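Forgive a beginner's question, but would it be possible to get a protein, spelled out as residues, together with the matching structure tokens, please?
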Amino acid sequence: MSELHAEDEQAFEEAELALEPEAQGIAEAQRLRRIEALLFASPEPLSETVIADRVPGGPVAPLLQELQGHYQDRGIHLRQVSGRWQFVTAEDCAQVLVTHQETTRKLSRPALETLAIIAYHQPCSRADIEEVRGVAVSKGSLDQLMQLGWVKMRGRRDAPGRPLLYGTTPAFLEHFDLDTVGDLPGLQDLKAQGLLEGTLPPGFDVPRPSGEEGDELEEDGEAA
């Protein structure tokens, strides 16, 4: 009888081991569904930290990548922008959602130049921008960029006069379809696209932004 009892216990343990991978697979599938529902219902992009807090049980990055692959050929895509995840309409399906024609406001050349300088040199002050452009920066250019939500104040530089510093926002990354500022095109990329003249000033270079603040900032509580 004891031998039969031992055999029963061994068979039970083997059955448990056989079912364990299946149970894990079911649990992961359930987490995937919950992440999908969470992203679908969220009115704004979510970071992996927030998703992991709402759907505990293990790493979420592999599940997000799996979900992204699942939606690759669908009418909506899962996209990561500025380190956050959100569902977006597939570009080739966007026209079916258009119900009216919006009037686009064209940025002035000074505003575009100011935006480019901030993007590549951030965080930078008005004096930094003027040094690169070689002309004074109008308040209107900065105001327009901040109204669009592409630029915001990033504190003050720890220097005489404590000048305000400016940097780009997640809305800037989203509009230009960038994950981080490190994805901005470099000098060779710009040349290849014909966006720079063939003859450039000696020593001219396009910096590679790291997305990290090189200045010591002091938050001053001013709103962007």
Observations:
- The helical segments are 2-41, 48-54, 61-70, 109-121, 126-133, 139-147, 170-175, 187-192.
- The two ends are 80 Å apart (CA to CA).
- The first helix runs from residue 2 to 41.
- The domain at 13-97 is CATH 1.10.10.10 (Arc Repressor Mutant, subunit A).
